[in-house]
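User: If only I could read backbone structure tokens as easily as an amino acid sequence. Those tokens are not coordinates but codes from a learned vocabulary of shapes. Could you go through the record with me and say what the backbone is doing? Here is the record:
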Amino acid sequence: MFKKVLIANRGEIALRIIRACKELGVQTVAIYSEPDLESLHVQLADEAVCIGSAASLQSYLKIDRIISAAEITDVDAIHPGYGFLAENAHFAEVCASCNITFIGPSPHAIRLMGDKNTAKACARKAGVPVCPGSENTVASETEALKIAHSIGYPVMIKATAGGGGRGMRIAHNENSFVQGFHSARMEAEKAFGNSAVYIEKFILNPHHIEIQVFGDNHGKLVHLGERDCSIQRRNQKIIEECPSPLMTEDLRHRMGKASIKLAKSVGYTNAGTIEYLVDDDLNFYFMEMNTRIQVEHPITEEVYGCDLVKQQIQVAAGEHLSHYVVNATPRHHAIECRINAEDPLKNFQPCPGNIELYYAPGGRGVRIDSHAYAGYPIPPDYDSMIAKLIVTASSRDAAISRMSRALSEYMITGIRTTIPFQQAILKNADFRRGKYDTGFVEKMLREGTHSI
């Protein structure tokens, strides 16, 4: 096992990794930008190193500074979390060249699957169904327009690097396509340091289902069921649940089998998530693979009774997949709400500022993953998510009731949050029946069927 791990991230995921390391008896090093000095991950790590200013390009995306911090603190490994450099193959290679273990898949696997365009080619080769679209990244507006015309509107413009809904635009005609093409490239460059995009056919109102896979360095690779991420706005997930209300045993088997086949074809190890679009006829299409831990990994942990982050560290250290993962079976039902510092009444405008009162809900089956606290200053420079509220219960109905109760207890003052909007979703009759797709939130907003 490693003696010391550097966490190349911030916020709740950095704190999540620190906690996993502490349970394994591993020391931790936090890195932070200047405005993150007061963040909890900085306070709870064994050591902390400032690596730059607020801008991600001058801090959390600065490979040389992160490696310098790792070398001066003499770490054995680096955990990248999600976002930032988590799916950067070059970063993983630099770690290896410095004799530091990258806690994640190999650079080769990241290069194949972390790049969405290359991943689609791998899926085609493995016989996994994919959406029609460009076979490579598209560099010019002229070329992009030709592809959009050939496959027909609506189309989706997608950044080939990163995730979290950044660098993604839907275009319904030529005018919106041109604007979306350039804005997607600019957003992707800012978020991931890579402006490359590709084009694919947009499937109207699909379900967004993802499969969790996990492999070790000894040839074992398994999947741990699905998560339903269809409750989203502008490609940003709001609520996730496991298992999916859409799922049948046959569909789970087919999607799980396809996911393992694809992961094995590229020699995948460690944690990964394969994302699909599923239509009303239960046909599924490969969308992308996240070669990292997911934001919504806690609901899989709660349903399958395992610790994915600890398992990431153990597998990276050369251990076999735990029997708790290999033999994991689903139990109960889990729902996650992403609590964002945003104002739902002002088109979900980010709401940075100082948290005055912070009281988190508790009780049976309630879990909070958060770096927020009373007095915490939320910087305007990063993602607006400040917490993940996860509940687990014996059934979906019970989980919805528990989440509604927990949200009603969650008190955060000084800023606006998405809590009232999530409460409205949970009251929606269609959501409670499990009758929703990726267009659910926009339809709710358009029809004014929510009450905040």
Q: What stands out?
A: The CA atoms of residues 205 and 439 lie 5 Å apart. The mean pLDDT is 95. The first helix runs from residue 11 to 23. The first strand starts at residue 4 and ends at 7.
